[in-house]
TrEMBL record:
Organism: Eiseniibacteriota bacterium
InterPro entries noted in UniProt: TPR-like_helical_dom_sf, TPR_rpt, Ycf3/AcsC/BcsC/TPR_MFPF
Gene3D superfamilies for the chain: Tetratricopeptide repeat domain
SMART domains registered for this protein in UniProt: TPR (SM00028)
Keyword Phosphoprotein annotated: no
Assigned keywords, A-Z: Repeat, TPR repeat
TPR repeat coordinates: 92-125, 223-256, 257-290
Highest rank taxon of the organism: Bacteria
Name used for this protein in its record: Tetratricopeptide repeat protein
SUPFAM superfamilies listed in its UniProt record: TPR-like
Amino acid sequence: MSLLGRLFRSQAMVAYTQAMGLYNKGRFSEAIPHFEEALQQLQDSSHPYGELARFYRVEALVRSGLAKEIQGDPSGAESDLREAVKTPTTFPDYHFHLGRLLARRNDFEGALIRLSEALRLNPRYDEALGWLALVLWKMDRVEEAFAELAKLDEGSTDLAIGRPENPRAEDVPSWFEQFETRLNHFRDSANQTQAALIAYAEGEKDQALQHFLGAVEKHPTYPDLRCRLSILLQENGRYGEAIEHLNKSLEINPRYVEAYLQKGITYLRWNSPDQALPPLSEVLRLEPHYQDAVLLKALACIRIYRVKEARQLLNGYLEWLPGEPRAQYLLAGCLALTRNMGSAREVLEQSARHFSLVAALTDLGWWHLRDRKNADALEIARRGLQNHPGDERLRLLEGMAQLGLGTAEAARGILDELANAARREVARIAVQAIVTLDLKEGRIENGLQILESAKARFPSSFQMTYLRGLLLEEEGELETAEQSYHSAASFLSTDPRLLRDLGCVQIRLGKIEEGLKCWADAYLIDPFAFPSAILGDVALVEEL
């Protein structure tokens, strides 16, 4: 559910994100208060994204429960996990974790119920089979315990090694004692996963990849490990290998929703949007209200010019979650691509009105700027600043609107201030605007000094090359701008704004397929980088 994290910006999600960051680094005691804060916020919230709140609440409960178990608070862990499984879910791990904990606490009847549910959701869940067999043996249901043990494949797991053939043999009790010890230590893959997550958080992706490869080699029947591994492989451009692991995950658990979702994302990244559609459709068959799957399927449809189908998906989504900003962005893009510019603006206006989102307000304002409706852009900026005082993006919009209205002195005051903005994109655009203004006013030396200062602020070649591309695009030198953007991409190919701007230039040059590919890549990195507002610049796109 990695993409969901970009949408939910409430106070609850700030706490949740902090908690996950601590949890992934093994700082469980510090994570627990943040989880509890997130849970309290989500329980009390009347936020319209009910499905997202449900997911995050359950996920936070499970993570909090696991953290409490590790910290030696089994009662607190059981309370959180019991609350988590009250919500219907297709994730077998939630039931497994509770069943395993109950077994350790000698609540065998409760453990039996939860482990059976985990196996209903994933019949090839070896660890759940092992714990179920152990629970049945402790309940003196020896024949049933052996029936479960028989389902374990000795070729794929070391849990079944040395199991006795005769349930009445003398060595059965001692074997089950050893079996329980193996079960309690079997989750060493979790330690490797933990090490991988820590390495990933610290930017050591190669090391994280090796940890996951080791975990999968040791436990090849764990679909979750293969799914996590596939995400790292796809980020390293190893798409074919990622698909292989996802297919294996789905052989093990045909109802593994996350694996279908990641398969769709991998095909989108692999420039195979047509192949992304079947797995994304399967996600929606299993989970009809899975937000990311709807949005990604719409994106895949846009990539293969099925804009009508994308609009139908997004319109249906917005009937369910009115004003949801990611869907609004994609829908505005669809409308603009089919030259329904008025409707596209209306969609963004609704998003800005209902949620007062800075992203929607600035997008709408920039659209007005491109239409030379500078007074409207200024009104939007000032309206937004009432709710978000001091926001650099809205201040930039205000400065650019002043510039468009010809009030150069007021514009320069704002832009000079923003040349040192905390947001690099804001600073880049402010520098570009100041230099452009200096060129128009003949203040060449001042413009050169500003560019020299920009080198200190943006020391990397990427930043300066990108800035050069922005300046060239502003001057209408599209081919040279494209070259500059490509040069910038050679330093950092995953910057969503760069991909967005490169896509716009390519479409303006008539390279429609290449431009749409850049936009799709930008969306996968950051949903709010999808260029709904700047599509007004590309009316040359034919009806799709």
